[in-house]
Design a protein that fits this description.
single chain, 104 residues, mainly alpha, elongated
């Protein structure tokens, strides 16, 4: 009996150049910016423009963060030394496993 698993397209969701989690960040910044622009509109047109400029700046910073940090959180460990073991011969291990006597 097998189970079917939908794995999607194996690509992140892209919307206006924003990928994955950064879409939600941008929606939050835009929503907050619109509310800020409405609140600042009590000070006239200059307040509204200031709120919209802050929104545009926030979205710009999200684009820059996406380019710098990428979509997935990975720790970067600079200064590590990687030592890879010698390639193993699987045939030798398989033959050794067949020659073993089991006590069953």
């Amino acid at each position: 009996m097998g189970f079917y698993l939908y794995k999607g397209l194996k690509k992140p969701l892209v919307f206006f150049g924003l990928k994955g989690k950064y879409i939600f960040y941008a929606v939050g910044v835009i929503g907050g910016g619109v509310i800020a622009a409405l609140i600042l509109s009590r000070f006239g047109l200059l307040g509204s423009l200031l709120g919209l400029a802050a929104t545009g700046g926030g979205v710009y910073l999200i684009f820059k963060r996406q380019d710098k940090h990428g979509l997935y959180d990975k720790t970067k460990n600079f200064g590590q030394i990687f030592i890879f073991p010698k390639r193993l011969n699987n045939k030798r291990f398989l033959q050794h496993g067949n020659n073993k006597k089991t006590g069953i």
